[in-house]
C-alpha cells in the first residue's frame, strides 16, 4: 500500500519558520510509524530529524503528533489508523522545536527535578530491605509505568496556558513518592505542590490520561494528591 | 569546547549511573550519553535481578555461583562470579534503600520468582531467585539511579556521541565527544574514563536491542588498544516476538509460561527434563530452532508458541503487564486468550572490553592495562557470563561491577593529578575524521552496508555456525569494511545529523562483527551460545580458554590470543539440565 507522510520540517540553520514536506512510501499494515520514518530517512531524506531508541515503547524518546494526536511513533502501527494511507507528522506541542520533530525537553526535565524525584527518608536503613505492604505498592504502581515521554504534559491545556504549571508528568512523579510508604517527606512534598502552579493547576481535563501511551490514569493520581492535601488541611484546622 | 573533570563516564545506563554514585559527591563527575539518560537500554530489562535473598525459599550465594558457572558452560572466571553472587543480596538491599519499588511478598519482603538456569542445591530444581518490579525491573532501577544522580547534582551531557579516547603515553586522560544538537566537538579532560556504553545487538538483523546499541564504546576502546574478550559469545534470547525481535521476558516462563510446537507439545520436556522451559537461553534458543528445522514450527513457519493463557489475569496484570501490552500492540495477541508467536532474537553480548574485577581495561593476556581507562556493564567482559549469561544476571553484573569500577576509580584518582595535555588540540584528530567523512564524495550509503552486515551476521553467525561459512563471512565483512571507506554523508547540517552518526556506527559494528566472526571461526568447538555444527562438542582440552582480540589496524583482521580461565570451586562437567 502506498502511504503519504506529510512531515513538519524546520532547520534552524536555514529556516525562519517551519514548513511541511511530503513523502510517499510503500507500507504494510504492521509497520510501525517509526519504521516508516526510518525508511524515509534511510531511503529518501537523510536530513530528517527525530528521536528514537528502543522502538517498543519503553524508552520514551519518540512522542510526537500523528494525525493531530500525541502518540509514540514506535507504538502505533499503520493498521491502527483508519486513514491508513495519509499521515501528518508533527513535533510535540508546547516545547520549542530544535529541528524537525526534535523538541527541547529541558523545561520538562527541570520541572521533574523540581518535585525532588527521589526517595527521602529520615529513618535508619535496616540491614535488609524495609518492609512494605504489597497493597501500598499496588496503589502507586500506575506511576511506575511512566516513561517520561512528555505526552501528558504536552497535551495538557493548562501547561500550554501557564508555563509555570508543573504539569501532569512532574506531579505524577510527586504522587509516586508521596504515596510510597517508605518516603517520610510527605508533608513537605504536599506543601511544595499545594499551589496554583502545583497540583491545583490541574483542572481535571483528562487530556493527560487520554494520551498516555502507557495507560496511566494520570488525572486520577493527581486527584489522589488533591484529596490528601484537603484531608491534611482538615485535620490541621 | 573544553571541560575538565576528575572522571568522565560514557554511558548513562545502570553501570554508568551506579559508578557515578559510588564516586561520591567530592568527585567532579561528568556523564556523557548518546541518548538522554532515561532512554538508555538498561530500561528495557524486564524480568528481574538475581540474588540469593532466600525470601521465598532457602537459597545460598554458592548455589547462585554454581548456576552462573554452569550456565556459562564453565567459561566464566569463578573468582569474578563469586564476587558477583556474594555481593548480590547487598546490592538488592541497597537498591531498595534508594527507593526501587520491588514487588513484595505478603509479608512485605521483596518478592522473588523463578528464572532460566537458576536452581536450588546445585541443580536439583528451579528456584525463585529473581527480584523484580513487575516486568519493568530495569526501567524502575534506571529511573531510581538517574534520580539519585540528579539529587547529587552530577553533570549530564545528554545526546553527546563519544568519538575518541585521549590516550597519552599509555594513559587515558579524556574523551572527545560530538554534541548532537550543535555539531560541535567537546573535549573532556579527566583523570579517568569509565566506558559504560552497553551492547551491540544491532549487529544482527533480528534484535531485542535499541537502535543505540551499536557497540561504540567497545569499538573505540578496541581501536585505542584495549583487548576485546570472548566476542564470539552472543546471546540469542529464545522469546522475541516473531519477525520483530521485541523481547518477551523469561519471567513469562518463570511464572509458568510454556513453549509449544505446532503439535501443541511442550517440547522443552524432551531437551531439559529437570527444569524444562527454564533451561538456559542458549539451550532453549537452539531447541526452538531444532523444532522448526524438524518441521514443527507453527504453520510450517519459523516460530513457536509461548503459551501463558493458563496463568490467569491476576498474575498477568500484576507481574507481566508490559509484555502483555507488547504482545497486544505488536502481535495483535491477547495473552490471556492466545499464545504469543516467538523466535530467538539477538539480545546480549557476553563478550566485551577485557577488564579485571576492578574494571581496569586490559590490553593483552599478560595483565597489562591502559591506566585511567575502565569499563563496566555489557560493554565489558569481566568475565562473569562466560559462554552464556543466565537471565537476571545482567542487571546484577552492571550494578555490582559498576559499583566496583566506581570504587577503584575513586582510589585511583586520589593518587594522581590531572595528566597534562600537550599544546596540541585534543579534538584535532576527531575534527579531521569528521571533515573527511563530511567531504567524502564516495558512492556508498551507511544504510545499505548496515543492512547487508545485519543479514550476513543473522544468517551465518547467529545461533548455528559452520567453519566453512565463517571463512566466507570474514571475506564478506572485509569487503563491507572497504565499502565503508566510500560512505558519503548526504546531510551537510550540524544539528541532529543522524546521517553522520549512522556512518560512524556502522564502522564500529563492522569492527565488532569481524571479531565475533573470527572468534567463532577459530573456536572449533561448541560451548554455551557458540554452537558449531561442524564441531558440536565442547573441547575443554583446547578451548577452556578465553578468546582475546587486539586491534591490528583499519584494514587487518584482529590479532587473536587466548587467556586462561580462572577455576576455583567448580571443575568443568557435562552441562545437562
Summarize the structure.
The complex is a heterodimer of chains A (237) and B (577). Chain A is an alpha+beta fold. Chain A is built from 9 helices and 7 strands; from the N terminus they run E-E-H-E-E-E-E-E-H-H-H-H-H-H-H-H.
Catalogue the unreliable spans of chain B. none
CATH class of the largest domain in chain A reads: Mainly Alpha
CATH topology of the domain at 428-546 in chain B: Methane Monooxygenase Hydroxylase, Chain G, domain 1
Assembly level: heterodimer
**Which outline of chain A best applies?**
elongated
Based on CA atoms alone, the radius of gyration of chain A comes out at: 20 Å
Biggest beta-sheet profile of chain B: 8 strands, mixed
* Biggest interface found: A-B, 57 and 62 residues
In total, the number of strands of chain B is 20
- Domain tally of chain A: 2
Which percent range fits the helix content of chain B?
A: 25-40%
Shape-level CATH architecture of the domain at 428-546 in chain B: Up-down Bundle
What string gives the helices and strands of chain A in order?
EEHEEEEEHHHHHHHH
Using the alpha-carbon principal axes, give the shape of chain B.
globular
Low-confidence stretches of chain A: none
Order the strands across the largest sheet of chain A as they lie in space.
2-1-5-3-4
Strand content of chain B: 15-25%
Largest sheet of chain A: 5 strands, mixed
Number of helices of chain B: 17
Query: What is the straight-line distance between the termini of chain B?
Result: 56 Å
Classify the beta-strand content of chain A into a percent band. 5-15%
Could you explain the architecture of this structure?
The complex is a heterodimer of chains A (237) and B (577). Chain A is an alpha+beta fold. Chain A is 36% helix and 14% strand. Chain A has 9 helices and 7 strands, in the order ββαβββββαααααααα. The longest helix of chain A has 19 residues, at 218-236. Chain A starts with a strand and ends with a helix. In chain B, a hairpin with a 6-residue loop joins strand 16 and strand 17. In chain B, the strands form 4 sheets. In chain B, strands 1, 2, 6, 7, 8, 9, 16 and 17 form an 8-stranded mixed beta sheet that branches. A 5-stranded mixed beta sheet of chain B has the order 18-15-10-19-20. In chain B, strands 11-14-13-12 form a 4-stranded antiparallel beta sheet. By secondary structure, chain B is α+β, with helices and mostly antiparallel strands. The longest helix of chain B has 25 residues, at 498-522. Chain B is built from 17 helices and 20 strands. Among the domains of chain B are: 234-347, Alpha-Beta Complex (Flavocytochrome C3, Chain A, domain 1); 428-546, Methane Monooxygenase Hydroxylase, Chain G, domain 1 (Up-down Bundle), CATH 1.20.58.100. At the A-B interface, helix 1 and helix 3 of A face helix 4, helix 5, helix 11 and helix 16 of B.
